[in-house]
Structure formats: structure tokens, C-alpha cells
Amino acid sequence: MAIDPWEVAALSGSLRGMSRLARTGWLASIGLLGFAVASVASAHDGRHDAAGSAAHREEPPQQGAASRPRPTNVRPTVPVRVGAGDHQYDWLPDWEGYRAQGPIGNTHGGIAFDSKGMVYFNTDSERAVIAVDGNSKIAKAWGKELRGGLHGMALVKEADGKGGERETLYLAHTSRHEVIQATLDGEVIRRIGAPMEAGVYGKAEEFNPTSVAVAANGDLYVADGYGKSFVHKFTKDGKHVKSWGGHGDEPGKMKTPHGIALVTRGGKTTLMVADRENHRLQEFDLDGNLLQVAPAKLRRPCSVAQRGDELVVADLEGRVTILGKDNEVICHIGDNPDPGKRANNGVPMEQWELGAFVAPHYAAWDAEGNLYVLDWVSSGRVSKLKRVKGS
């Protein structure tokens, strides 16, 4: 049971009005409790950053750290404000309804939104795809056969062949060495395996895709982030077109192209690649020609998503970064002040802090500009950061 020293302090203060005999009896009865509180307080190291990594209890949400230190195992009850300038968010403490049906397992994938406002995310459990409603309650979950390896996800709207439209998911699966297209309820539509015709694989098992993006014309782009670090282009029918990249650190080469996204600015669409172990983003045209190495200084970028001219980058080393239209940094959000917790899948839930990420694996805005972030942690963590009006 977590003990709040501030509540105990208030209780102790109320004893001053008692008689000496009564006070002595009360203090004796809480002696062990006082010892436990002292232990908790001494163990707390007070690590908080100006971006709001400490939980605080005052209303309304405040920018930055709490006015007094609190143990990290005390669950916060009010939002923590993070960000800066035009990117301020209230990190919601109660957006955890998805835990009501038990542990969700390791979160190691992406996030997507359908037209009805459902939020989809991935885990390594038998509920490989979980869909929650606006209150974070699980509406449906599926993917028992996809357990362990479902990594990247893209939700697209396309013609259903019957004169209408449908929404489907494209899923990159590292251990199955394929990309799967499925309905929003988990019915498999088709599978796209290793592009052996690219001439870069000795066997299909060397293809370990981590991310997929779908163009307006149906063309597919697949990043082999856990394989040979190539990006592959396919037609909408799944026919291989070309491949580029490969392992290396010179411009145009990659070391773990972990996440990709199609970005449209000024009427021009390009492919942005989160080149994780080269600590950079690279931008290509849709035929694989390098346009630029983005100027933003990043740690280990995992994913890229767009809203307007801006991009959000999930950085595995404990923070989320917002970039402007020139791909320069606007601000960092939720930067974990403890390097030992960054990119650490094993950090237990009681050591998480509202306002500080552990290992951001995917981040994206919804239609209203709210930010959702999936942390790569074994207990599973998906956070909602509500956009502050006027920012």
C-alpha cells in the first residue's frame, strides 16, 4: 500500500490539540507507520524536470514540476501540463481504462484512429490489436495468432469493391516476416511476404518488417527495420517495385529504419524514415531518391506522424519531439530526467511518472490535436495528452 507522507503529516498535526495522554497513545499506535513514511521519503530522489515530470495535486494543471517532492509510487489524480508554446498538453492520469480487463502485456507497436473515434494499438500478447473508445475502455481485441511480433500499423480507407469504402489495417509483423492486411475486426484480407526479387535476402526469414505506409494510390512502403535496413516499395497489388537503403551510416543508408510515414507538405508527398540507430530522420521522394537528412538532433527516433506541416517523433530514449515544417525542433515533451529509465523496457509501473516517458515507440495526433504515445514497456503503457485550447 502506498503511503502519502503529506497526509500523515496532516494527521500528526491534528494531534496537537489532544491531551498529553491521548496524544501519547495515538503516536505509539502510528509509530510503525511513521517509520515506513520516513523510509519512503528518504528513498525518493526528487528527480523532476521543468517539462512536468513530477505528479502534482493542485488544480488546475500546472506547468513544470510539483511544488513539493512526492514518492514516485503515489498515483497522481490530476493532469500534468507538459510542452511549450503552441504545443501544450494536459497529460491525463485516468486514461487507463484499458487495464480493467487485466494486464495488456508489452506494448511494442503503433497507434491508429478510425473514423468512429476508436483508438487502436498493438501489444505482444494474444490481444495483439486492442481498440479502445474515447474513455479508454476496450471495445474489442483480437490477434491471438499474431502474438509476439506485431510491430507497425497503418489504418487506411479504400474502395471495398462494392461501390463503397472500407477501413482496413496494414500490419507489419517482424517474426512472421510479412505484412498483413486485415479488417478492423481482424479478418485477414491478404499477406505480403519477403520481396525475394529485390535480391537482398538469402531467405525469407531475413525480412523483419517494422513499419508500413500506404500512399493515396495504394502503393505500399515497407521498412525492414529489424532485418537488412532496406525500404521496399510495392504496388497496391503487392508487386515489388524497388528497394533502397541497406545498412550503413552515410546519407541514404540506414541502421534500423524503424518507422516510416508519408508526409505531404505544399502539395508534395515524400517518405520520412526514422533511421533509429543513425539518430536521424531521412526524407526520400517516392522513388527512393534522398532529399535530405533532417537537421533535427534526435536520440533514437522510432516513428514519425504528421499533422498540418508539423511532425511528431517518438524517441525511444525517453521523450517525444515536435518538428516544424523545416524539420527543426519546436520542442521536446516528457523528457525523462533519469537516463537509467530511458529506453528501458523493464521499468516497473510503480516507477513511472506522469509527465515523463520511458521508451516512446510510437506517437500520433488524433483529429482534434490530442497526442497519444505508446511506450515500449513490459507492463504496457499508452498515454493520452490532451491538447490545451489556444496552444
Describe the structure.
The chain is mostly beta strands. It has two domains: 5-75, no CATH class; 87-387, 6 Propeller (Neuraminidase). It is 8% helix and 36% strand. It contains three helices and 25 strands. It is globular. Mean pLDDT is 86; it is low at 1-72.
The helix/strand order is HHHEEEEEEEEEEEEEEEEEEEEEEEEE
Distance between the termini: 38 Å
- Poorly predicted runs of 5 or more residues: 1-72
What is the fold-level CATH name, i.e. the topology of the largest domain?
Neuraminidase
> Globular, elongated, flat, extended or rod-shaped: what is the shape?
globular
Task: Summarize this entry quickly.
The chain is mostly beta strands and 391 residues long. 8% of the residues lie in helices and 36% in strands.
Could you list some keywords that capture this structure?
8% helix, 391 residues, four-stranded antiparallel β-sheet, five-stranded antiparallel β-sheet, disordered N terminus, 2 domains, mainly beta, Neuraminidase
Q: How is this fold's topology laid out?
A:
Layout: H1 5-14, H2 20-29, H3 31-43, E1 80-84, E2 87-91, E3 111-113, E4 119-122, E5 129-132, E6 138-142, E7 150-159, E8 165-173, E9 178-183, E10 188-192, E11 211-214, E12 220-223, E13 230-234, E14 240-245, E15 257-265, E16 268-275, E17 280-284, E18 290-293, E19 301-307, E20 310-315, E21 319-323, E22 329-333, E23 360-365, E24 371-375, E25 381-387
Antiparallel strand pairs: 1-2, 2-25, 3-4, 4-5, 5-6, 7-8, 8-9, 9-10, 11-12, 12-13, 13-14, 15-16, 16-17, 17-18, 19-20, 20-21, 21-22, 23-24, 24-25
